[in-house]
Amino acid sequence: MSFHKISLLTGAILLSACGEKPLTVNNDIANEKTINTTAAVNKRINIEENVERLLEQMTLEEKISLTHASGKFHVNAIERLGIPEMWLSDGPHGVRHQIERHSWDSAGWTDDHSTYLPHLTSVAASWDIEMAHLHGSVLGAEARDRGKDIILGPGVNLARLPLYGRNFEYMGEDPFLGAKLVVPTVKAIQANDVSANAKHYALNTQELNRTGVNAKPDERTLREVYLPIFEAAVKEGGVYSLMGAYNEYYGTNANQSKHLVMDILKGEWGFDGVLLTDWNVDINTYDAAMNGLDLEMGTNVDNYDDYFLAKPLQKMIEEGKIPVSVLDDKVRRILRLQQRVGLYDDNRLKGERNTKKHQKIARKIATEGVVLLKNEVVDGKPVLPLNQKAIKNILVLGPNADKKHGTGGGSSEVKSLYEITPLAGLKAKLGDDVNIQVMRARSSVLAPIASDYVASRHWTGTAAWNISYFSDNTYKELLSESWIVDSAFNVNKLAKENQSQKKQFIKMSADIKPLKSGIHTLKVDSLGDFELKINDNVVISLKGNKDQNVELKPASFDISLTENEVYAFEINYEGNQYFTLGWDAPGNLFTDEKEYLAAATQADAVIYFGGLSHGDDRESIDRPDMKLPNSQDEIIAKLIKANPNTVVFLVAGSAVEMPWAKQANAIVWGWYGGMEAGHAFSDILFGDINPSGKMPITLPEKLEDVAAIALDDYNATESLYKEGVFIGYRWFEQQKITPLFPFGHGLSYTQFNFSDMKLSSETLHKDELLTVSITITNIGKVAGSEVVQLYLHDKEASVERPIKELKGFTKVFLEPNESKTVLITLNKRDLSFWDINTNNWLAENGEFEVMLGSSLSDIRASSVFNYVN
């Protein structure tokens, strides 16, 4: 078994071989930093002089032209002054394909492919500063190669709720972890002469009514939980731009909140970059202008002159309602960003794209983020890694076995040069030596029409049905509309509580394209009135609710359909329960239970690639529940029973329930792993890479255990953040709820010993640093990496504080029997909470406990010290 060594970036966390002194920064490096600092100051002076020179020459109209978009993704040029167009692009996981200048349609380019990087949840799961740096370096270089000036990423909002549709874009649930990873990401992007864009500022924690929900956290929660990552991006990362959030903050859009923008971002933090909007945000001219919004990128009007920061802003300035100085500040910031990225510089970096180097980086990040959740011993040995030499027959199942994810999810979609699926990765690794049997298992529950047949697309790129809600059965008064991933609808508990009416009147539509001609047997299971039209002809009409106490089989209807012809399907439903429309189609894609279970018992190895897709994890829509879609739980449970060596490999960006977890002997979590995911996953499964990822989120046993749900604080109108600072793992510890898998959890193919924990002092005084050291030894037989996690507990706080708060971490690579000493520093801010009385950070005198471990629930050593102010 061989392993690739992981290089480490040196920094505040230092490593040394056992018995040797820890490494220190030498004088050459210190002198180099001084030189670089001097050069940066000189460059900054030149930038400010250039900004003022340009500003003095600009007319009012020219200034206004820079504060709003002149296309979907670009800002106006001022040719008279030599100012070119400024171009922006999505997204956080690769440069988005080129769209038309003035519409969302594809521009039809054939050379706009980009490296599809693992999603930022995977970076967070690596717990590795180097992976964050590599991610940013690829994103920045490829953005430059595509001629972009601002890349809209990284995304840094927190995973407060497992249902949140955009969790996959972000860096987990902990503000400290995200803050440490965002800094190298931002720096690496901007080292390529491109502006990073940390988003979405702030409190964007749900997609349910994302443009209207009113976020109302208390000030301590805001400061301790939802702002530290943005603060780090600004103060430590020097980020050139931020994107405001869709949601409201205390009654006004976050982009025009005086408190968020003027008081904190541009006031306390001294942010001198550009705050820009997302697309179609609910702002107004006066508040946006006066409260710090700099650039309006997308508003639903016919003419760019009608944007809030266009002619309406000019009019208010001419009428004396808004000072010219307010506009000048915005223009200075935009010009400053343009100068910083070298927009006028002939020697600007050119970038590179789709290189072998970038593809290797994508693979490396993907492998570092894979988390081994469970690996039990069966017949005397762990299930994983699989022994390639001993395996002759593998059964592969699951919806993600051959699923590509790059083109879905929303603004994070990537037109990848290629994408290696898990199945393709297995085939590439095993070649012809191993028989790989592939099946799509069918459960006993009626499944909706598979996405293979759905030709219609949600704007995020996902195969989907349009769903519209009406006031009554005339279907004339539209209440709302959205998209649903397939032909199944269920009024879940949350939806029922949020509905003002007992009955719902629903219309669903999609374009369906049969794969083969012949008889298609439509099957309907409905509790409520159900009607199906195909090309406006009624083919099914079921009236009256079924008796809920009587078990009934789905009704069946035969219809002849033609291969590759597109049919308009429309469902009308009246009721408050559920319906599913499925079918048996010619050349059935699915294998019946008896057959796949028989194959599982005979296979040397069974791998089920399950989880979610961008039909579930996607922008603009939250998930309705935490369950695996399409009865995966039933299939997984039966596979585990048929073959105890079944490996459950989940691909998802948010937590899912796992009712079969206790029975499973091997569970792996792989995230959306980018273009090299299949290779990376195979490397882990067969032991070429030793897994070292750790969960950046808590995996609850059930949705009801999550704070926002338990406190009834998830709805379409108002989020009070009732849990306060107790987000994620902090809530579970406070409430004494044992999750399925805790924050920071992740196993290895080797074992590590923690020993000889030391503190540099028993007392920490104001403005001093406390150094915590511990020796890590690889006591197993294979090389691997461990993530040392430092948690802090304030034992004598005057306010309620979490039992544990992450305040340090480092990833260390060790050969068998090798030891290294890890140093992690703590400072006053690490000890502090936000004091609402002084409106500042406060570290109180008293005793603190510092804990070091392999996860939140696996603490290996602890000690105490006193803080004296």
Q: Mind explaining what this structure looks like?
A:
The chain has 869 residues and is of the alpha/beta class. The protein folds into four domains: 126 residues, Immunoglobulins (Immunoglobulin-like, Sandwich), CATH 2.60.40; 282 residues, TIM Barrel; 231 residues, Rossmann fold, CATH 3.40.50.1700; 134 residues, Galactose-binding domain-like (Jelly Rolls, Sandwich), CATH 2.60.120.260. It has 20 helices and 37 strands. Strands 16, 17, 18, 19, 20, 21, 22 and 23 form an eight-stranded antiparallel β-sheet that branches. Strands 11-26-25-24-14-15 form a six-stranded mixed β-sheet, with helices on both faces. A five-stranded mixed β-sheet has the order 29-37-36-31-32. The longest helix has 31 residues. The chain is globular and about 75 Å long. The chain starts with 13 loop residues before the first strand and ends with a strand.
